[in-house]
Write a structure and sequence with these properties.
2 copies of one chain form a homodimer.
Chain A lengths: L20 H8 L3 E5 L2 E4 L1 H20 L2 E3 L5 E3 H7 L1 H4 L6 E3 L5 E4 L4 H11 L8 E10 L14 E11 L2 H21 L4 E5 L9 E8 L5 E5 L6 E3 L20 E4 L6 H8 L7 E8 L2 E8 L6 H8 L4 E2 L2 H6 L17 E5 H4 L4 E7 L2 E6 L9 E3 L18 E15 L1 H5 L3 E3 L5 E3 L1 E8 H11 L1 E2 L2 E2 L10 E5 L4 H14 L4 E4 L5 H11 L3 E5 L1 H5 L3 E5 L4 E5 L4 H17 L2
Parallel strand pairs in A: 3-7, 15-17, 17-20, 27-28, 27-29
Antiparallel strand pairs in A: 1-2, 4-6, 5-6, 7-8, 8-24, 9-10, 10-21, 11-12, 11-21, 13-19, 14-15, 14-16, 18-19, 21-24, 22-23, 25-26, 29-30, 30-31
Helix pairs in contact in A: 1-12, 2-6, 2-12
Chain lengths: 571, 571
């Protein structure tokens, strides 16, 4: 393609909010143009890369039996009412009324639509397992779109859904999907880490995320350096330091603690350790008051709390706390059972004689012991795992990483088939709910991840597998002989795989743009190169250079590009 | 692909509203499932055909220099306010507020978004011409979705936009697009007729539609059987019979016409011809009353009237007519100039001495003559062209056809670049608005057109170019040797191009489904075929049959399929 007539423009200065390298590169190289917050126009260069990413995904998903379908973006509210998500999901789900006043939604994911398809088609165990996928634009009204193409409101996604007769069959197929995903990311040259993850609004019991490690990533990961554990911090587990319970239970007694409204102040005032205190954190769910209790040296994980409760929670505002009659800075569990649902972290259940708020200004209680002084509605692990805590498998101190979520997989089980009545007849002729898995891979985000991973200070360095063009042909100067040579090479290489910079611009500008755009193989034709015998070829990823005569340029280009492809295959 | 595990189900009975053959076939063959009015889930068989249609479109549009981009579906209202279409388009344009309360729309077409892209990129005449296209889902909130995939609310479309420095350059490129479209439709085996069309809400001066002739088509076409004229009836022109003006103007006189509130009753009562009468048709636009006058033997074309006025109009309700003080059945132009904007068909302007309503119950006026008794704000052709009227080019009586609009092309001119300030510097360094064209081709509709065109009573007969699979392999019976033979052939043909009916169903059901699904080449393996020497091959389109030994099946299949492909190329 001739750059002189390409819908494309590089940009020198980019918006200050573009912090991620991929965000900067998308703007600098003119791959996308922002139309609204989280909504971008993708230009032809970006779409060429996108189509290649899609082809790789289709090949790998077809190889594990995926059938490509296409589910609607605009869907009737009733469908989401059947699953219960119409009410369960907040403003992330965009809603509109159609011309007849009928409530509709813009699909951000397609469990409901695909379950509707499956229940209309699947009648017998003989038809199972099956896997359906699609590649399509989705809209999720994110509160905080960011990072250019990393977190969009409108984004391209491959979403897949599998249907099984048993949990074992789902488990086995899930592993196949994980392998297919790893194959896709190898071909995209994205080294990803598979981590355990929250199931979130999808439901189900098990989920994994495929994380590209990146400093600017918005997810925090907790990993064991030995490689035996990796999880999103939202749900990561870790061994907690044990704290001695004390030989005998102390008596409950009031302590005067003026001004000690924080754990730090309390510890300083009483000369005790954080782990000797009991932290009370209040949440609400609907009208209900929820008190989460955890040792003072730990933090409550809202995601873990939500999963333990099986319902959504949010932190209490100051106004709400006052309305419930809570004593700010001095709240505690003793005497609060009638008023709040009490959830206790396992670290607290096993350690007695803690110091908690006395529900009275300027007073704490010492000797507070679970089971004697208060009881709980549920006990479990609700603590945030942090670096330095010990791996539950091997005891090695855990580390923290930042990552960008490139894909996710969920074992949904019967979450949707039960609520939407999607059943098949088993071998005994008994109706059973379909057992489901779902698997997402963001395509616009994959593009962002590729840029995040493959660039230097000058610009992009496209992996060969997804580069918009293999060759970038730069003609330097306007000399007739040089231009003629460039046109000859362009014709020989073919316009399909060649980005041809035929613009009437200076060599400096053109070479800088070539650095920025980062096609794998650069071919430069100038008076100097002709004098030296032909064209100069340079493999961007390795800086390997070769001169070739005009006649040999195509074959040398092919040789270099093939070399590069071999290398990529080994990544 | 094995049918036993395919997300697919045929249907014996289809909904009564499925009138079009394509609509029935989509439901019977399980190609799509209705989720809501005008919103369908496309199943894997349909998506395979869709992807092939898209590939053909990409190849032909790339060949004329098209650059594939991807523009957002959800767009801010401001963008459409810039062009003026946010207010100009009614409920067809779906609107929603995002979580921040910002008004957004779902794009039904992308002139605004692509003009926004072009104004950010195109600075100089040196960058022109250019053509950008995309393939994407759109949403248009149609009041009356119909015909299965023919008129959807959510549909797949290829939309393209070109940018030029002059009308001549647009004109020349427009011809290239027309040729590319014709090449696409040849490859889809859709014989289309190119007709002149209304520019509608797109604006601009010239438009064409590519029509598949079909009895169930919702568009009426007016065509000259000699082939020198074809147009959508909305804007078709025709020679009107001349009516003698009379040697001298008669005096204006009142005639008593009790009960003659229609042209027919008037003609009967006065023993005159329809063409001797003057028909008054009232419209409104905003608060304005518009009176369209036409000879009694002709009908007013609302589209032509709207185009002549350059503004939208709608017919007056009875209540509105009464509110304007019009005398129902007896309204006429004489004395109404102060109250209504008067538009006169050219047939009226050239014929005097007509009979019109007297604006008084039970009375008409005779001798009514344009220019003497009333004047007009505009004169032009606002008549509906009907079969039997004469071709404006050759005088041959015109004929009527029904058609399905498969594609359209528009010369937009500066409709969007002026309002959205999309300008480039010309050779003299002067800022000029971009001159634009736009070109739409519905992909889900193309699928419907293919089914409409290629079927018989038993089912679909896919053109080779877009068939979901080339081969349909049917194994009859459960005999071990037969199944083994079928599996061998399946492996040899390759699963990519073979739909393999391995279901444990009767021969009758499987062959009936094969007839319904209509893949180009059927291969049947049964005890009988094995006894006769191997497999039975049948080319669906020609019913050509061949027997082949198991070893030769693949090569014979290839030969037959190639033969078919050759034939298609000649269509």
């Amino acid at each position: 393609m001739r750059m002189s007539h390409m819908m494309f423009k590089t940009q020198k200065r980019v918006a200050a909010e573009a912090e991620l390298p991929s965000h900067q590169l998308i703007l600098r190289a003119g791959l996308a143009r922002r139309l609204a917050s989280g909504i971008y126009t993708l230009t032809p260069l970006a779409v060429r890369a996108i189509r290649r990413i899609e082809t790789i995904i289709r090949e790998e998903i077809n190889a594990i039996g995926g059938q490509e379908a296409l589910l609607p973006i605009v869907q009737p509210a009733e469908l989401w009412q059947e699953s219960g998500r119409y009410d369960a999901i907040g403003s992330d789900l965009a809603r509109l009324n159609d011309r007849a006043g009928h409530p509709m939604i813009l699909a951000m994911t397609h469990e409901e639509a695909v379950t509707d398809l499956a229940r209309s088609v699947v009648e017998s165990y003989r038809q199972l397992p099956q896997m359906v996928y699609q590649i399509q634009s989705k809209f999720r009204d994110e509160p905080r779109p960011r990072g250019g193409l990393v977190r969009l409101r409108e984004f391209l996604m491959k979403d897949a859904y599998s249907f099984h007769t048993s949990q074992q069959d789902l488990d086995a197929y899930y592993e196949q999907v994980v392998e297919a995903y790893l194959a896709i990311f190898r071909r995209l040259e994205l080294p990803v880490l598979v981590v355990e993850a929250d199931t979130g609004m999808m439901g189900g019991k098990t989920a994994h995320e495929f994380m590209l490690l990146a400093d600017g990533g918005e997810d925090t990961l907790i990993v064991c350096p030995t490689g035996d554990y990796a999880a999103n911090q939202e749900i990561a587990v870790a061994r907690k330091r044990l704290r001695a319970h004390g030989t005998a239970d102390e008596a409950l007694r009031e302590v005067y603690t003026p001004g000690a409204t924080t754990i730090a102040a309390l510890c300083e005032g009483l000369s005790c350790a954080e782990e000797d205190t009991l932290k009370s954190v209040f949440y609400t769910s609907g009208d209900e008051l929820i008190l989460a209790l955890i040792r003072g040296d730990l933090e409550v994980s809202e995601v873990k709390l939500r999963n333990l409760l099986g319902q959504d929670v949010r932190t209490l505002s100051k106004e709400e706390a006052a309305a419930f009659g809570l004593v700010a800075g001095y709240a505690g569990p003793v005497g609060l059972a009638a008023q709040a649902r009490i959830i206790v972290d396992d670290s607290v259940a096993e350690a007695g004689n803690l110091i908690s708020g006395a529900n009275r200004v300027d007073y704490h209680l010492a000797g507070v012991t679970y089971g004697r002084d208060y009881s709980a509605d549920a006990v479990g692990d609700i603590a945030v795992a942090t670096p330095g805590m010990a791996c539950v498998h091997c005891g090695t101190p855990l580390e923290e990483r930042r990552g960008i979520e490139a894909a996710n997989t969920f074992k949904l089980g019967t979450r949707y088939s039960e609520s939407m009545n999607a059943r098949y007849l088993d071998e005994q002729g008994v109706l059973q709910p379909l057992i489901m898995g779902c698997y997402g891979l963001g395509i616009t985000r994959a593009l962002a991840c590729i840029l995040e991973q493959h660039h230097d200070a000058d610009g992009i360095i496209w992996p060969r597998s997804v580069a918009p063009f293999t060759h970038h042909l730069v003609v330097v100067g306007t000399d007739k002989e040089v231009c003629h040579a460039a046109e000859t090479i362009y014709a020989a290489l073919g316009e399909r795989e060649t980005l041809y910079d035929d613009r009437a611009l200076s060599a400096g500008v053109k070479l800088k743009d070539a650095d920025l755009l980062g096609m794998p193989l650069r071919i430069t034709v100038s008076a100097r190169s002709l004098a030296a015998g032909g064209a100069e070829l340079r493999l961007l990823a390795t800086s390997q250079m070769r001169m070739a005569s005009l006649e040999d340029t195509t074959s040398v280009a092919r040789e270099l590009a093939a070399h590069r492809a071999d290398e990529s295959a080994g990544v």
